[in-house]
Automatic annotation (TrEMBL):
Protein name in UniProt: Aldehyde dehydrogenase family protein
PROSITE patterns per UniProt: ALDEHYDE_DEHYDR_CYS (PS00070), ALDEHYDE_DEHYDR_GLU (PS00687)
Gene3D superfamilies, sorted: Aldehyde Dehydrogenase, Chain A, domain 1, Aldehyde Dehydrogenase, Chain A, domain 2
Domain called Aldehyde dehydrogenase: residue spans: 15-452
Species of provenance: Streptomyces tunisiensis
Length: 467
């Protein structure tokens, strides 16, 4: 997952911090550098707004539908702002804005169900649902708007209020989104705060926060859980993955090549559930490597605002350094770059789309989450060997199996230790399905009704049965 946030340069008087365009490596705008002590007022206002927001489900539905319409109306401005600070191609930013609106619309029409309890006693019992209170949503830089909506849409639909903090690498589009939504939501129901550390640490440990939902790295996720434990706040943690794709020996290499390539390289590989390790039957290994390497060599890499660009830059300098270090270490350990393997010349944070072969299976580029445009392709001799390797890391977000016999592929997918598995595609989610990882990939569930109920508390009411 994304790197942790940059450390603050001690300067208490600073009111703003620079935002860098990853296509140039230069600052082009500033964002408010809010201080931790400002959160007391923000959370107090969210607490007071909660008392009215939680009481009227019909008004919430109307407001969230209006919010979706407002996001769509502001789509062009939001998309351009997102590309400028995140780096992804403009078409992908438009798609992210569309998914943000779609998520608001989905949760606007989702309501918890009162459930009777029939246990044979002369009592009429029902499970009802209550909101929690102010929710802290901490969002990374790879999909700032989409992941923000994945957190605040179900929280708001459940009757909670939200304090949303984007990454300091990508604060601008989220601030714009907050302004768009402020025009249609009641005051203080959704508040966007921006700033560098320790703002996030204070937010997740604040005693007024009742639920913390965080997406980011495993070490930061553990720190978030420890901080939230002080006030016994609920936590939902999506901590990324080192997703595997296993190709079977009957796979149509050319037929899946484009889907497989983009499953690994979309958004410059900066996707928590992107394919980050590829296991291939030994007899097909050379064909698969050359097929993917050819695409890596010819894909159009450039600034996201250029209509010809298919792959943008890495988002930030620390992440570029991480990708470069992992690649350099793999090459030093004997790996070979069938394509790429190096940073591109010129300004900005560009790294050549990279396909690695002859990679030692214990290389960090295999065992860790590189979160960049680098894909190690590893041969296997037996399916048992491939499954053991696939399950051999601490991650367990997603995985996929590719072949012409879907029943056989499904049998292999059942053996993967992950929260979601796909057959002949990867990283495709619907709004209605749960999204969760196992092992170090997270705690709790997002998406669909499960995401809604994760923002609710059961309330059981007993009364005597009527005669």
């Amino acid at each position: 997952m994304p790197t942790t946030e940059p450390e603050r340069v001690p300067d208490p008087a600073a009111a703003r911090f620079p935002v860098v365009d990853p296509a140039t490596g230069e600052a082009f705008e500033e964002a408010p550098d809010q201080q931790p002590d400002e959160l007391d007022t923000v959370i107090d206002r969210a607490q007071r707004a909660w008392s009215g927001w939680r009481t009227d489900p019909a008004a919430r539905t109307t407001a969230l539908r209006a919010a979706a319409d407002a996001v769509e109306a502001a789509g062009e401005d939001l998309a351009r702002s997102l590309t400028r600070e995140q780096g992804k191609p403009l078409a992908e930013s438009y798609a992210e804005v569309a998914r943000t609106a779609a998520r608001l619309r989905y949760f606007a029409d989702l309501a918890p169900r009162t459930r009777p309890i029939d246990d044979g006693r002369p009592v009429r019992s029902e499970i009802r649902w209550r909101s929690l209170g102010p929710v802290a949503a901490i969002v990374p830089w790879n999909f700032p708007l989409q992941l923000a909506a994945a957190k605040f849409a179900p929280a708001l639909a459940a009757g909670n209020t939200v304090v949303l903090k984007p990454s300091p690498f990508t604060p601008l589009a989220t601030r714009m989104l907050g302004s768009v939504l402020a025009a249609v939501l009641p005051e203080d129901v959704l508040t966007v705060v921006t700033g560098r550390e320790p703002l996030g640490a204070r937010l997740v440990s604040h005693p007024g926060i009742r639920h913390v939902t965080f997406t980011g790295s495993v070490p930061t996720g553990r720190a978030v859980a420890r901080a939230a434990a002080a006030s016994l706040a609920r936590v939902t943690l999506e901590l990324g993955g080192n997703d595997v794709a296993v190709l079977l020996d009957d796979v149509d290499v050319e037929g899946i090549a484009d889907r497989l390539f983009w499953a690994a390289f979309r958004n410059c590989g900066q996707v928590c559930m992107a394919v980050k390790r590829l296991y291939v039957p030994a007899r097909l290994h050379a064909d698969v490597v050359e097929t993917l390497a050819q695409r890596a060599r010819t894909v159009a890499v450039g600034p996201g605002l250029d209509p010809a660009t298919q792959l943008g830059p890495v988002n930030n300098a620390p992440q570029l350094a991480r990708v470069e270090d992992l690649t350099r270490q793999a090459l030093a350990d004997g790996a070979r770059a069938a394509a790429g393997g190096h940073r591109l010349d010129g300004p900005g944070y560009f790294f050549a789309p990279t396909v690695l072969v002859d990679v030692p299976p214990d290389s960090p580029v295999v065992t860790r989450e590189q979160f960049g445009p680098v894909l190690p392709v590893l041969p296997y001799r037996s399916l048992d060997e491939a499954v053991e390797a696939a399950n051999g890391t601490g991650f367990g977000l997603g995985g996929s199996v590719w072949g012409t016999d879907p029943d056989r592929a499904e049998a292999v997918a059942e053996r993967l230790d992950c929260g979601t598995a796909w057959i002949n595609h990867h990283a495709e989610l619907s709004l209605a399905q749960p999204f969760a990882g196992v092992k170090d990939s997270g705690v709790g569930v997002a998406g669909g009704p499960w995401g809604l109920y994760g923002n609710l508390q059961p309330f059981v009411l007993h009364r005597p049965s009527e005669a």
